[in-house]
Amino acid sequence: MQPRNMSMSGVVDLAAVKAAGEAKQKAEEARAQATAEGGAAPSGPLVIDVDEAGFEAEVLQRSAQVPVVIDFWAEWCEPCKQLSPVLERLTREYAGRILLAKIDVDKNQMLMQQFGVQGIPAVFAVVAGQALPLFQGAAPEQQIRATLDQLVQVSEERFGITGLQGAAPEDDEEEAAPEPQAPEDPVLAAAQQALDSGDLSGAVQAYKNKLADEPGNVEAKVGLAMAELLGRVQGLDARQVRKDAADRPGDVQAQLKAADLDMAGGHVEDAFGRLVDTVGRTAGEERDAARLRLLELFEVIGGEDPRVVSARAALTRALF
């Protein structure tokens, strides 16, 4: 399952930083030399604080050896205080397969702008000098873990990057005595398994079962919204859907399908904007259909996401 705003297919070059081709070549040479000498590639700390001055060396160059996860945060950000410890703990669990770079946005505005960060917490990855968005907001741990698993897989398959060989969890008191975790919810686990296997109807039913028992369960709400979204876009001809939406701006069903494709492809603002515009130029049942679909897509991202907050305000203006 892809967590919020996860889009592994949309790998793009960083817009205002040096390309990492030379860095990748040097890193590969360093790995080869270390292997020839019977040692492992250098590891170092798995969780680092990064600023603009050290970004190239600590993120771009190291991304040729290991996927670098970037956590954009700030001291005043309460969701950041929930997310950062989870990312740090999972990074140590992955034992060198990923590196976590923490960037304080208040002190590094240029990096925030280069990545196009609209709100925090925001999590990106850099692999072989290329950046991709992972998710925004304090996502559930299960989804974060699934995202990191996919990142590791894509890094190896697409770029041949396998991480810092031989790295071990950092030796600190927190890791020596980890806090006990709550047992995994069997219903949510079954829903996740169904989703991962492509059984979308099974996932939808499992999440509905969970919500029947716990109507306020956030993970089940997000999972259900994602499963239903994937079900709606399954089998769609993307080119035809976008042509229909462009040719028939007044066709609500065409706009709903295009918005679903936008969301599934990680184009969150485009999906929200399309539906808000549709609400603004329709009435009656058609307006209700566009409004309800927009609310469903809000669930995919999460109500705390700044893009959802902005879109809710735009929806209110369109309605009243």
From TrEMBL:
This is Tetratricopeptide repeat protein. InterPro entries: Thioredoxin-like_sf, Thioredoxin_CS, Thioredoxin_domain, TPR-like_helical_dom_sf. Residues 35-153 form the Thioredoxin domain. Pfam families: Thioredoxin, TPR_20. It comes from Streptomyces boncukensis. Gene3D superfamilies: Glutaredoxin, Tetratricopeptide repeat domain. GO terms for biological process: cell redox homeostasis; response to stress. It comes from the Bacteria. The lineage of its organism: Bacteria, Bacillati, Actinomycetota, Actinomycetes, Kitasatosporales.
